[in-house]
Amino acid sequence: MEKEIPFKEEYEKLKILVSQGQFELIFSEEEKAGDIRLVYLMNDAVESFLVFCKARMTGSYEPDFQGELQAELNKDGSQYVLVVRQGKSVCTIFFQELVLETHLFNYGNTGHFWVEGYEYLRQLEYRLAILWDKREYLGEDFCTEEERQISYLAEFPPLNFCCYPAVSEKYLVPSCGWWQVSEEALNFMDQLLEEAGDKSLRVWLRLYSRFPSKWIAKHIAWMLHRVSYGKVTDLIDRKLAQAASVYPDRDFGKGESAKGDFRQQEAERIQNLQKRAMARKKELELKGFQVRMLKEEPFLYVKDSVEYQIHLMVWKRKGGNRIVEVETIGKE
Fold this sequence. Notes:
Blueprint: H1 8-19, E1 25-26, E2 36-42, E3 46-53, E4 56-59, E5 69-76, E6 79-86, E7 89-95, E8 97-104, H2 119-138, H3 145-151, H4 183-196, H5 199-210, H6 214-224, H7 230-244, H8 263-286, E9 291-296, E10 309-318, E11 321-329
Pfam families: DUF3878 (PF12994)
Protein name: DUF based on E. rectale Gene description
C-alpha cells in the first residue's frame, strides 16, 4: 500500500505522530470545504499541519485521548481511508490527498520563563530546541544555512537541556541523548569562540572534544554564566535572533486568534503593552542596564490559552556570575 501512495513524505510524518500518541484534529468554520487538519508541529517557530483534503470523518473521535494509538491506511477506489483507534473508540477519515501546511515565524525574540536561574541561558536553550525540532521534523529545506549551523548547538550539553533546561523535568523531551555531544556542535562552537576571541573557553572546548565527559560539560556550562564569558553567550543570542529575523512576526489580525473578542480590543492591548515595554526598556538602559525584550504570544492558526505578554531581562552581576532579573509587562 505504502509504495502506491503519492504522499509518501506526508504519510511518514503521520506515522511519526501516531507512534508518539499524537492525533489532534483541528476543525474550523473557515476551513476549506471538506478539509480536516491534523496538528503536526506547533511551537514559536512553526505552526504546521497535515491536511486531509476533500475529507469526511465518521465514527467517534476523542480529542482528549491519551494513550497508544493504532492507525491503518487503505485505498477505496479513488479515495484513501484512514482508520484510527483510540482505545475503544474508532474514527475513520475518508480523503483524496494528504498535504503538509506550514507557517514559519520569527522566534528570535520569544521568551518563556518556566524555570528560575540563569534565565537568559534557558531562553537560548529553548530557542535552540525549537529550531532543532524544526530541522528534524520538517527537514533542512525549511531552514536557512545559518539556522542549520546554529541548530547543532541543541546537541551541545553545556548549553542544552542537560545544564540549562527551559522546562521542568516533568515536561522535558530530550532532543538527543543525555550528555552526548555531536561533532557538528563542537565544530560550530569552536567557530563561535574564535569569532568571540575567547581563548580560555576554546582551550576547554578542545579538551571536551577529546574527552567528552559530563564533568567537563558541567565546567563549560559554569563558565558560560560567568561575567568574563558573557560575550560568547551574547554572540550566540545575536546570531540566533538574526537567523530567525528572516521570518515574519505573527500577525494577530488574521487566523484563529482574530475571531470573536480578540480583534480590535486585543490588538490595542498588544500595542499598549509594546509601548509600555519599550518605555521601560529605555528607562532601564538610561540607567546603564543591559536589557533584552522578549515576547510570549499565543499560536495564530489554532486557539490557544496563552496570553500575549512581554518580558524584560535585565542583566546584573552577582559576584562573578552574570544573572538577570525578569520584569513582566502584561501579567495581571
